[in-house]
Design brief:
Helix content is 29%, strand content 35%. Helix 2 (105-139) packs antiparallel against helix 3. It is elongated and about 180 Å long. It contains five helices and 22 strands.
Length: 387
């Protein structure tokens, strides 16, 4: 009896189970359709290209050097009696300071002797002029044939005048020698070396030390061939920034003094000279720019019109990636005019308002569809409202 009922109910149970399964499948399919479609497009960020007029900066390095180097020597012989306390290696002395002095007694005596010789020559000249006047008066009563230059004492007068000039020349030399007993600093100077001491006898022309001029310093720095076309038309007296390297860099302002006028045959570079006044800050409170420092020199060059300035990371093989109006990647070939630090100056290949991709997908392809970061879209909307 039970088997008969089972045979009767089994088709109905199978039909009910099938209907339930179909219903479950339809519900699951409906739920899948309701889910959001996954967007697999890579996300990029962009920036809008805008051309500008850009002033080029010319920059290179050079060594700080003194404007003048002078070997100090004595112009007279004698014993050293004193020297300036700052006349030591590393000392700074001002223009007009007495670096050292030589014993003066002999030169003071020579000056007195020269003064006496001048006085004697002057007296002789006065005497000869008086005799010539007497002879001229006497000659008026004599026939002209008996009156000669010798009678009128003209040769004697010329000799007396010459003796006076010789005595005056001797006086100048004696005064010069006495003055040269004090050796004077010709400019504000840094003492590099000193080779004398008190009591030492030195001869005329003996080198006793070396000094550097600290009233001005010069920096000779090279300008590469590719930079020459960006130099301004008038370089004279153009300001340049001079900066040292290191943890506490020193920055000073100098003026371009001159072009050395030749192109180096080995490097094909020309050379400019920048002059910095008072490098050791004797007349200011600025930090000293010491000789021998290796510094960077930079100054403004030409102003370039309608230039795009991009980080080097955005340019690969002279190609910049942009996205078109359909949000698809497109490569653009550009012409690089100049490299400045981390940036490239581009004058051809881009247009204003081009959307430059700043974060590329790992394998960018022409026509690849991308989506722009939501932050970028918000920035664009803000910029459009501002315009």
């Amino acid at each position: 009896m039970n088997n008969r009922w089972m045979k009767v109910l089994f088709p109905f149970l199978a039909l009910a189970a099938g209907f339930g399964g179909m219903t479950l499948i339809e519900v699951s399919a409906s739920e899948d359709e309701q889910k959001d479609i996954v967007d697999t497009r890579p996300t990029v960020t962009i920036e809008t290209a805008q051309a500008e007029d850009y002033q080029v900066v010319i920059s290179n390095h050079g060594e700080v050097q003194p404007l003048e180097r002078t070997m100090i020597s004595a112009q007279v012989s004698g014993e050293v009696v004193s020297w300036h306390p700052s006349f030591v290696a590393g000392g700074l002395v001002l223009r007009g300071s007495v670096l050292f002095s030589i014993e003066k007694d002999a030169y003071e005596a020579a000056l007195l002797q020269a003064q006496a010789n001048v006085s004697l020559a002057q007296s002789q000249l006065i005497e000869e002029k008086a005799r010539a006047d007497v002879a001229e008066r006497e000659a008026k009563s004599l026939p002209s044939s008996k009156v000669s230059d010798l009678y009128l004492r003209k040769p004697q007068l010329l000799s007396a005048q010459a003796n006076l000039k010789s005595a005056q020349a001797g006086l100048k030399i004696a005064q010069r020698d006495l003055d040269n007993c004090d050796v004077i600093a010709p400019y504000d100077a840094l003492v590099v070396s000193r080779n004398i001491g008190v009591g030492q006898f030195i001869g005329q022309g003996t080198t006793v030390g070396e000094i550097y001029n600290v009233e001005a310093a010069e920096i000779i720095f090279p300008v590469a061939g590719f930079d020459r076309e960006f130099l301004p038309d008038n370089l004279a007296e153009k300001e340049a920034k001079v900066t040292t390297n290191g943890y506490n860099p020193i920055e000073r302002t100098g003026l371009i003094s001159r072009d050395l006028g030749v192109v180096d045959q080995a490097t094909r570079m020309s050379q400019l000279v920048v002059r910095v006044n008072d490098p050791y800050s004797l007349k200011s409170n600025m930090p000293a720019l010491k000789f021998g420092n290796y510094v960077q020199v930079s100054f403004p060059g030409r102003t370039l019109e309608h230039i795009y300035r991009l980080p080097q990371s955005l340019v690969n093989n002279q190609t910049v990636w942009i996205i078109d109006k359909d949000n698809k990647l497109q490569p653009k070939k550009v012409e690089i005019l100049r490299e400045e630090g981390e940036f490239l100056l581009i004058n051809k290949g881009l247009s204003d308002n081009d959307s430059i991709v700043t974060t590329l997908p790992e394998y960018p392809q022409t026509g690849m569809e991308v989506k722009v970061s939501s932050g970028e879209k918000a920035n664009e909307l803000t910029a459009q409202k501002a315009r």
